[in-house]
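Internal tracking record. Fields below are filled automatically when a chain is submitted to the structure queue. Please do not edit lines marked as system-generated. If the sequence contains nonstandard residues, flag them in the REMARKS field before resubmitting.
Queue: standard
Priority: normal
Entity type: single polypeptide chain
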Amino acid sequence: MSHDKLAHMANQIAIFFESKPHDEGVQGVAAHINAFWEPRMRRQLFEMIDAGGTGLRPLLREAAALIRRPVDAG
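SYSTEM-GENERATED OUTPUT FOLLOWS
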């Protein structure tokens, strides 16, 4: 999946949770991504975050601390 499409999907999740109280929104973004995104998608998300997170919503960048980072096999 392209980084642009993945960023769009992640930002859509963040936009939804921005309507919640802040802490609930952070938890909600992380819980959604942990529950529904496969490791490959989370790995790509962390590539973007590790590169500075340009274009990712602040709530998403904050939630990254709670998102399970995939462990590389090998």
